[in-house]
Amino acid sequence: MRFIGITGGVGAGKSEILRYINKHYKCEIYLADEVAHLVKQPGTKAYEALLELLGRDVAGSGGHIDKALMADRIFADPSLLEQVNGIIHPAVKDFLLERLEAAREAAETELFFVEAALLIEGGYLALVDEMWYIYADEAVRRERLGRTRGYSQEKISRIMSSQLPEERFRESCDFVIDNSGDLSGSCRQIDMRLKGYTWIP
Q1: Which tens digit of pLDDT belongs to each residue from 133-162?
Q2: Which residue among 29, 81, 97, 199 sits deepest, i.e. has the most Cβ atoms within 10 Å of its Cβ?
Q3: Whether the predicted model's global pTM rises above the 0.90 cut
Q4: Could you say which of 90, 109, 128 is where a domain stops?
């Protein structure tokens, strides 16, 4: 079983790539943002640590952490952001590694994927068997984000400037998928890559 990281800048089309992989390969796929939500649920270690850090009133009436209130606390004291990340990021890694071990023991999964824009910065190069970079031209990414998410060009520029430059993605990753054009072309690139694995028919 291969543990593969999927990363790339905003608007590169990581989600559509993963939808194709999920449909055509025997795999498990985890989105780091979704896992980060799971590890903050009541009863988890991260949940208790966050309440200890931010105040127990950050939990709403249903017991779940109020995202808006948490954001307000961090905005009021930016030093909290690093501490919050220091709780959530290790919890996400622990969750993924537990799932990875379970998948290996079950021996029913051939590919285990984790997707996030910040995998490289998060230290996942040391964990995955290979890292894939989903690339798309900046003009294509801008058009997609404006059309599908309604982002302004200013917001897109702000997000892009906060992410790694293309050169860093390319030098850190084992495989680059050019997703600038039609999805079918990207799918062919994926199939060609995975044909190298003996268990792929």
Answers
A1: 999 999 999 999 999 999 999 999 999 999
A2: 29
A3: no
A4: 109
Residue 199: phi and psi, rounded to 5, are: -85, -5
Which domain covers residue 163, as residue numbers?
1-26+111-194
Q: Is the dihedral of CA 36, 40, 41, 46 positive or negative?
A: positive
Say which residue the tokens 């379970």 belong to.
102
Is-contact 15 145, C-beta < 8 A? no
Indicate the burial class of 179 (C-beta count within 10 angstroms; 0-12, 13-18, 19 or more): buried
* Paired sense of beta strands 175-178 and 130-135, if any: parallel
> What integer pLDDT is reported at residue 44 of this predicted model?
94
Sign of dihedral through CA atoms 41, 54, 49, 86?
A: positive
Q: Cβ neighbours of residue 176 under 8 Å, at least 6 residues apart?
A: 132, 133, 135, 170
